[in-house]
Amino acid sequence: MSSRTSPVIPGFGLTLGYTLVYLSLLVLIPLGALFLKTTELTWEQFVAIISAPRVLAALKLSFGTAFVAALLNGVIGTLLAWVLVRYTFPGRKVIEAMIDLPFALPTAVAGIALTALYAPNGPVGQFATALGFKIAYSPLGITLALTFVTLPFVVRTLQPVLADIPREVEEAAACLGARPLQVARHVLLPALLPAWLTGFALAFARGVGEYGSVIFIAGNMPMKTEILPLLIMVKLDQYDYAGATAIGVLMLVVSFILLLLINLLQRRISHP
């Protein structure tokens, strides 16, 4: 007996066919072409490119800053989503619009604005310089730029889940003697964790591939503040298409493995 349930509106075969066609045209074929391009390189050449110190430094910087930015947004985004769902206050609509601003704002504009703010001669950067550290042209500046760009992914993922949690459940737990931390741990956390992991994965994935908002504030110093997408552009400017493709494959494989692990963790939490 088939395990697939029949929906009210038929057409599974047709819709599945369209889905596979679009998925192939938009995702599978371009990625397949990426891997095919690397066949122009021998295995020794491929390993030499992806193991170069400059590439490894850029890999560590891109994935490290994206991971930290996703963690920061996991905390900040959860608080913002909680405030927007649980409370009504003047200016709430303005905050809602500000959260969506990184979606509509061109990333280059965001990068220029952040650089002007956090540069050594900027309104905030000059105070950091006086304290003995700098924000722009450092990994800290890259992390701030990624935090700005990826914040909406966490907030918009958590908001519907928080809205679906009845307040009566929290109140019932409190009436039974549960403390606020116990309510958060045993009532809210199990319901929020799968959505939180989804928002984290979306923010992390966007941060790894972010380019426009980072190149202005990064300073683009090799071995220090050079990200992998910029290194790919450098290879393309040098007409080293095979080298750029090899770095792209490296990013793709590492990103796929990390996202797969996050999805497996999410599934295990959702279906223990």
From TrEMBL:
Pfam families recorded for this chain?
BPD_transp_1
The entry assigns this protein to a family as follows: Belongs to the binding-protein-dependent transport system permease family. CysTW subfamily.
Q: How does it assemble?
A: The complex is composed of two ATP-binding proteins (CysA), two transmembrane proteins (CysT and CysW) and a solute-binding protein (CysP).
Q: Which residues form the ABC transmembrane type-1 domain?
A: 59-262
Where's it mainly located? membrane
- Protein name, as recorded: Sulfate transport system permease protein CysT
Q: Entry's NCBIfam families?
A: 3a0106s02, permease_CysT
- Keyword line: Membrane, Sulfate transport, Transmembrane, Transmembrane helix, Transport
- Transmembrane residues, as ranges? 12-36, 63-85, 97-119, 131-155, 187-205, 241-265
Name the species this protein comes from: Stutzerimonas nitrititolerans
